[in-house]
Amino acid sequence: MPFPEFDPVLIHLGPLPIRWYALAYVAGIVLGWWYAARLIKTERLWAPGKPPISTTQLDDLVLWIVLGIILGGRLGYALFYKPIMYAQLFTGQTLGERFELFQLWTGGMSFHGGFLGVCLAIVLYSRGQKIDMLRLGDVVAPVVPIGLMFGRLANFINGELWGRETTVPWAIRFCNARIQQMYGFCPAGDAPRHPSQLYEAGLEGIVLLSILSLGVWKFDLLKKPGYVTGLFLVGYGVCRAALENVREPDYGMPDFPLGLTMGMMLSIPMILVGAWLVWRAWNRPPVSA
């Protein structure tokens, strides 16, 4: 199946291109903000306790989280997948090379880096506002799959982060006129590949959102601090580790032992911490005040 002729730019506002990738971030943040506010306003989800923050505090938290996503995502990408960016700050031959780390428009964001950035934002905000960190995490965790879904769909539109070669009937050749014009060749080659971006949008986005929504709205898991956060960590870690088997490893990555990939190794700690949080919450009574 040929890759559609998607244009990564939705529209040009004068000299400013509005890209689908940027809109995916905006859509994920805005819808996540709305969903988190709905969780806070639905008092029965927290009863007999109360929501950990008000909607006004949520508005402040969103700014912290946005900074965590952008800074963590970019710095994490450079750390995990392209550490030469840090060296180029001091050894780059041109101004572009020296400041490549800050050129967000060239692409290169890591979920695990963004996740760590958001975790740091939650820790700092909870300490500053004297809020229970786990309960604050439980407000944020259920909304994350929304952003993941939009982000993976944008990856597909951009024709990036493709899957491994395959012979399945729905395989896609990530090569079209736009990609050839942009790079002078097709980085993915002409071989049919798994549309792993769509798999991730489905599992990390739709399926994980459904599981967390069931936990929140049907099983009242918000009443046990850390439960929803742990469930997210386990769910994402398992989905990502499994999908790494059909996703092409990032360029320049070494051959890790046991067939592991960087994505798998970064997801394993998430699964372990998440399992511990679920076990901890399971064995504790609901918050009563």
Strand content: under 5%
Low-confidence stretches: none
The largest β sheet comes out as: 2 strands, antiparallel
Helical content (DSSP H or I, runs of 4+): 55-70%
Instruction: Determine the structural class based on helices, strands and strand pairing.
Output: mainly alpha
Description:
Helix content is 58%, strand content 3%. The protein is mostly helical and 289 residues long. It has a two-stranded antiparallel ribbon with strand order 1-2. It is globular, with a radius of gyration of 20 Å. The termini are far apart.
Structural features:
Lgt, 11 helices, two-stranded antiparallel sheet, 289 residues, mainly alpha, 2 strands
Topology, pairings included?
Blueprint: E1 9-13, E2 16-19, H1 20-41, H2 55-80, H3 84-91, H4 95-98, H5 111-129, H6 133-140, H7 144-158, H8 177-183, H9 196-217, H10 227-243, H11 262-282
Antiparallel strand pairs: 1-2
Helix pairs in contact: 1-2, 1-7, 2-5, 7-9, 9-10, 10-11
Could you give a short description of this structure?
Belongs to the Lgt family. With about 290 residues, the protein is mainly α. The chain has helices at about 20-40, 55-80, 85-90, 95-100, 110-130, 135-140, 145-160, 175-185, 195-215, 225-245, 260-280; strands at about 10-15, 15-20.
